[in-house]
């Protein structure tokens, strides 16, 4: 006879549940569809799929962290942001595996990729948006997919991690320019003196502003790892395709070098000089 356990779960449901069903492994493990019969295409697909899965978890954590910070519930936010950094560290290690692929091996199946490119990774754009980097041209790619476009548009207009961190500074009593507090969220965040002055105070007296100080350092961790990911991507691309044009239509390595110049949380880096 079937009955419920102390958590209200049916025992016959428990008996039916399996490892594969729970994890939907059929869907996941039947999604490595090579277009060529080149041995290394499997590596290429798997690296991208695991990266996208980690990015999915990153977004889940970032969205919840933004909400916690807005609610001034800092401890859970710190935990989630620490997890994001740990995931970033994990994805960066994937470049070591991918680098075992030589230029000749990649060229053996590159043509099959057509115009597909990491440039089209919408999850990567959602991370950039969550970090306040709002580049409008990336939205155009998704015109043909209204559902996806709507999700991106929403994130594009929403406050990012740094916006809520700056609101936290204002809630603590720091004088932050209205132009920042009421900024157009669809623009990429730009450095502001009142924000830098506030962070300087926080860094001069960490004990007094312990939550804000911890928050700042978590943001620096995330930006630091993000830059390391971008750098390893650029270098891996250089060792595999040199300065060839990208399948997405960009200059390739030149473009990837250029995005490295962008700072997500500029004042947190400036503060190091100003202190
Ligand atoms: C052989 C390996 C790889 C090569 C040769 C490569 C090459 C490139 C190039 C040339 C671009 C510039 C856009 C273009 O014109 O196509 C690009 C962008 C991008 N790639 Fe890769 N990539 C590789 C692996 C990866 C992996 C493993 C990921 C992880 C998900 C990834 C994610 C991205 C993302 C997110 C962008 C957009 C970057 C931006 O706009 O800032 N790529 N890639
Ligand atoms: N942009 C790459 C192609 C590429 O890397 C790619 C192609 C399809 C799916 C994911 C990719 N990865 C990252 O850009 C190239 O120019 O070779």
Indicate the overall shape. Answer: globular
Structural class: mainly alpha
Largest sheet: none
Corresponding CATH architecture: Up-down Bundle
Distinct ligands: protoporphyrin IX containing FE, N'-Formylkynurenine
Any idea of the CATH topology?
Methane Monooxygenase Hydroxylase, Chain G, domain 1
Measured on Cα atoms, how large is the radius of gyration?
22 Å
Mean pLDDT: 96
Strand percentage: under 5%
What's the level 1 CATH class?
Answer: Mainly Alpha
Our measurement of the CA-to-CA distance between the termini, rounded to an integer number of angstroms, reads: 70 Å
Question: What are the secondary-structure elements, in order, as H or E?
Answer: HHHHHHHHHHHHHHH
Integer count of domains: 1
Low-confidence residue ranges: none
Tell me how many strands there are: 0
- Binned, the helix content reads 55-70%
Number of distinct helices: 15
Q: Your description of this structure?
A:
The chain has 275 residues and is mainly α. It has a single domain, classed as Methane Monooxygenase Hydroxylase, Chain G, domain 1, CATH 1.20.58. Helix content is 64%, strand content 0%. It is built from 15 helices and no strands. The protein has helices at residues 11-16, 19-23, 25-29, 41-70, 74-98, 103-107, 122-130, 137-140, 146-157, 161-171, 178-181, 193-204, 210-241, 253-259, 266-274. Helix 4 (41-70) packs antiparallel against helix 5 (74-98), helix 4 packs parallel to helix 7 (122-130) and helix 10 (161-171) packs antiparallel against helix 13. It binds protoporphyrin IX containing FE and N'-Formylkynurenine. N'-Formylkynurenine is lined by residues 48, 110, 113, 116-118, 241, 246-248. Pathway: Amino-acid degradation; L-tryptophan degradation via kynurenine pathway; L-kynurenine from L-tryptophan: step 1/2.
